[in-house]
Design brief:
The protein is 47% helix and 24% strand. The chain is of the alpha+beta class and 298 residues long. The protein has a six-stranded mixed beta sheet, with no helix packed on it. Strands 1-2-3-4-11 form a five-stranded antiparallel beta sheet. The chain has a two-stranded antiparallel sheet with strand order 12-13. The chain starts with a strand and ends with a helix.
Length: 298
Amino acid sequence: MSFRPYPTRSGQIGLALVTVAGLMLLMVADTLFHQRDPATAFILLASCLFLASVALAAVYWTVTALKLTYHLDRNGLAIRWGLGRQLIPFNSVAEIVSGQVVSGPAKFRGLALAGLRLGWGELPEYGLLRFHTTAPLADSLLIVTLDKTYVISPSQPQAFLKAWQAREELGATREWREEIRRSWPFSLAVMSDPLTWWLFGSATVTGLALLGYLSFSYASLPAVVPLHFDAWGLADRMVEKSRLFTLPALGGFILILNAIVGGLVYSKEKLAAYLLWSSTILVQLCLWIAALIITTAA
C-alpha cells in the first residue's frame, strides 16, 4: 500500500526550471554554432555546460518530487524517491515517533525547495536524521532504527500507522536489509565511488582549462605557430594556429575512451581502472606543457 506525502509545488517549480534552462540552452547553443571568435565560443560552451547541468539537476529534482511515496508491504517500508528506494525492514525499527513530541528544531543539511526536503539532520535524542519529507518536523513521523532516524510525512499519518501495524502483524515474506537500492545507472558500483568522480572530474577540468587557455590566447598568436622543434631548439615545422585546437580535441578523445574502457574493467580490476583514469590526467598535463611551449615560442 502506497502513501503520498503532503502536496507541495516543488515538482511544478522543478518543471518550470527545466523548461527555462532548456530554452536558454537551445538559444546559447544556436549562438555557439554560429560563433567564429574562439574566446566567445568558449564562454558560450561553458554556459551550455552550466545550463545543461542545471537542467539535469532540475529533471532529477522534479522526478524526485513527483515520485516520492511511502510504500508499505509485509516486509517493511520502502521510501521511493527519484531513482532510488530506501528499504527499512520492520525488524530494524525500534519505534515510530510523532514529530509533535520532538523538542526543538533539527539541524538540517541538504536540499530544500518549496517544501520538499532531502538530506541529513540531527537531534540530540534521536541522533542522525534522514529527511524524505514535504512537511515541517511537527507534521512528520520519525521512523527510529538502531543506526539512524528517517523523517517522513505521509499526508494520512493515522492511516499510515494502521497499515504499518496490519502488515507487520502478517509477517515478512522476504528478508530485507536496511539499504538504498538505486536504479540503473546509479546502481553501478562505479557511480558511487568518490575516487572515480575525483579522477574523472580532475581530467575533465584540466582539459576544459586547456581549451579555455587556447581560446583566449588565440587572438594574440601569429597566423602560423611552431609545432615541432629540432635538436637545437629551432622550429622546423610551422602550422596554422587553428591546429592548436587539436591538443584539447585529442585530450577529449582520450578522456572519453579511457572513461569507457575504465568503466568496463572496473568491476573486475578496480586498480586497473584507477590507473587508466590517472593516466588521463597525465595526458592532459602533457598536452598543457605542449601548448605552453608552442604559445610561448610563437
